[in-house]
UniProtKB/TrEMBL annotation, chain A:
InterPro entries: Cobalamin-bd, Cobalamin-bd_sf, GlmS. This is Glutamate mutase subunit S. Gene3D superfamilies: Cobalamin-binding domain. The keyword Metal-binding applies.
TrEMBL record, chain B:
It comes from the Bacteria. This is MutL protein.
Length: 144, 471
């Protein structure tokens, strides 16, 4: 597969049955301020909706927000779906309260490992700021 | 009397069952060795002769003859997809549902070694999938080019990303391959569509493979198309569960077919989560499902059962099957001997019990692989149950078929392994089913009759499947 050109475009949404919208909303503004084109899908977004939007806007990354502790369950299988949909090299980030709060506190390395194993490039704790997320993605994409 | 002959050209034996559809009775059975390497008709005529001797059934008086075949290796298919969990899984399911044997399943980009491996397996069909419609096209194009450059001469069935169907056909036809193109097995990420590929697999079987396998004379004798044997079993399972408009079926069911080299498991059951709150993951399941365990089987693959279970577990199982069995059962020696003598018939009570133990162990593993499983995760609000695979907890009936259910000692013991147990409470195997034995080996015949005589076939199935009590 050939690597596509970076065009500073991202898809943002809250995954699964999660109605918490504020994390994604903060990210939307931070990325727009940093010069990214943002497809903001709001809350309760399915894998298919994330992937469809990423195809339409030719996104560099899908940024998955999750705030109800079910991120591990909701994100399972997403990388394989991206590959089938022709988005094999898209960057996948996940952040928020992405596992049970106690797990995040005590077993973060294990939570992070499981997301990596599922094909996510990075997982962020709920203490990460939107700005840190932007800086990290810019570095991963090699853009300013 | 309305005599019908039902023939199963097996890999080893050609079996015939004669039935009278007026009385809905089995008149008799006969078998002889399958002679596909020379002339399929030699073995068939011998079996017909024996049938005449055993029950007086005269083939010339038959009102109809139906046949299925798994001779010459059955319908051997190589499935190619992109990711193992999506298009490769969809391709494998399409193949299994059409009665094929998946002899190679490969995802991502094929390299030379992979192509050489597929070539060496001498498959009858290659099923090329990959990418959703409009999705990834690079991998399936790469794989089509790899197949085009290969020495494969069998038909290639393309059921992948429709955006490149034309290009794929062009690449393969330019290399002189026989190409069939149909709809994508996974048109969208949440939509499985295996039926178009399955009907084309059946068509290719009828058009090319019957001839290639030397089954033409048999087809001419039979006078109708021969179907792959697993397809006949699937048709039987479907009819038996769902019934017809005028004859009720027996409800959801699981069929465990134990063979020497493989174990087939069929289920007919509504697709439902364990509870409304259970989170379901993975490709959508289908109401009619077939899986084949190519590494199990109580002759050719007896050593795998030993390797998976070990002496201690098998010895414990033996005790549960036959509490009064004499001690000293050496499963390593027995399974080694079985692999070296695949035609072995048990001698003495201990060997009969060991056979049933191997069958029980293998059936347990095969049904566990067929059924889904639950796992526990934790969210912000506590425990969450996640379901992967098909929920069979409420399946009403379990049916055992295959040689061991005919000759085995207390074969009903095997079926217990198909039901849920405390040993693996997370497996979604049937909770409290009724058990039946296909002790007359009639199930394939029910499938063969299901197209033209569904009511009579169903009534015969209900009459001849023997209820079994499993302690």
């Amino acid at each position: 597969m050939t690597r596509r050109n970076v065009n500073k475009s991202v898809v943002i949404g809250t995954i699964g049955s999660d109605a918490h919208i504020i994390g994604g909303w903060v990210l939307k503004h931070a990325y727009e301020d940093a010069g990214f084109k943002v497809a903001f899908l709001g809350a309760m977004v399915s894998h298919q909706e994330f992937i469809n939007a990423a195809i339409e806007v030719d996104a560099d990354a899908i940024l998955v927000s999750s705030s109800y502790g079910m991120g591990l369950i909701d994100c399972e299988g997403m990388r394989d779906k991206c590959i089938e949909a022709g988005l094999g090299d898209i960057i996948l980030y996940v952040g928020g309260t992405i596992a049970a709060p106690l797990e995040l506190e005590r077993n973060w390395p294990e939570v992070e490992r499981r997301f990596r194993e599922m094909g996510f490039n990075r997982a962020f704790k709920n203490t990460c700021t939107a700005k840190e997320s932007v800086t990290t993605l810019k570095a991963d994409l090699g853009v300013e | 009397m309305r005599l019908f002959l039902l023939i199963d050209f097996g890999s080893t034996y050609t079996k015939i069952t004669a039935v009278d559809l007026d009385d809905e009775t089995v008149l008799g059975c006969a078998q002889s060795e399958t002679t596909i390497d020379t002339d399929i008709m030699f073995g068939l005529n011998k079996a017909l002769h024996q049938l005449r001797l055993s029950c007086g059934a005269d083939p010339d008086e038959a009102r109809g003859i139906y046949a299925c075949s798994s001779a010459a290796g059955g319908l051997k298919l190589a499935a190619i997809g992109l990711t193992p969990s999506l298009t490769l899984e969809a391709a494998s399911r399409a193949a299994l549902g059409a009665g094929a044997k998946v002899i190679s399943a490969r995802g991502f980009e094929l390299d030379q070694e992979a192509v050489a491996d597929i070539e060496s397996k001498k498959c009858d069909i290659v099923l090329l999938c990959g990418g959703t419609d409009g999705g990834n096209r690079d991998v399936i194009l790469h794989n089509a080019k790899a197949l085009a450059q290969s020495g494969l001469s069998c038909p290639i069935l393309v059921a992948g990303n429709s955006a490149v169907s034309g290009a794929l056909r062009g690449i393969l036809e330019a290399a002189g391959k026989q190409v069939y193109v149909t709809k994508n097995v996974l048109p969208a990420l949440d939509t499985l569509d295996t039926e178009p590929a399955q009907s084309l697999i059946r068509e290719i079987f009828i058009r090319h493979i019957v001839k290639a396998k030397g089954l033409e004379k048999a087809r001419d004798f039979v006078g109708s198309e021969i179907v792959p044997t697993p397809k006949a079993s699937l048709l039987a399972a479907s009819l038996l569960a769902d019934g017809t408009a005028s004859e009720p079926g027996i409800g959801s069911l699981l069929v465990v077919e134990i063979g020497g080299a493989t174990i087939n498991v069929h289920s007919v059951a509504d697709v439902e989560p364990v509870t409304p709150l259970t989170v379901v993951r993975g490709l959508p399941e289908s109401r009619l499902k077939r899986t084949v365990e190519g590494d199990l089987g109580i002759r050719w693959n007896a050593h795998t059962i030993y390797e998976l279970a070990g002496q201690q577990k098998l010895a414990d199982l033996l005790l549960s099957c036959a509490p009064d069995a004499p001690g000293g059962a050496d499963f390593k020696a027995y399974t080694d001997m079985l692999c070296a003598n695949v035609g072995h018939t048990p001698t003495g009570e201990l060997e009969y019990n060991m056979d049933v133990t191997l069958g029980k162990c293998a059936a347990g593993i095969a049904v566990e692989r067929h059924a889904g499983a639950l796992s526990r995760e934790y969210g912000a609000n506590g425990e969450i149950f996640v379901q992967h695979g098909k929920n069979l907890l409420n399946v009403k009936n379990v049916i055992g078929t295959g040689g061991i259910f005919k000759y085995g000692l207390r074969p009903e013991q095997i079926l217990k392994a198909a039901a849920s147990s405390d040993a693996n409470p997370w497996s979604l195997k049937p909770r409290s089913p009724r058990f039946f034995l296909d002790s007359g080996y009639i199930l394939y015949g029910i499938g063969l009759l299901s197209g033209d005589y569904p009511e009579a076939a169903l009534r015969m199935a209900k009459k001849y499947l023997r209820p079994a009590t499993v302690e």
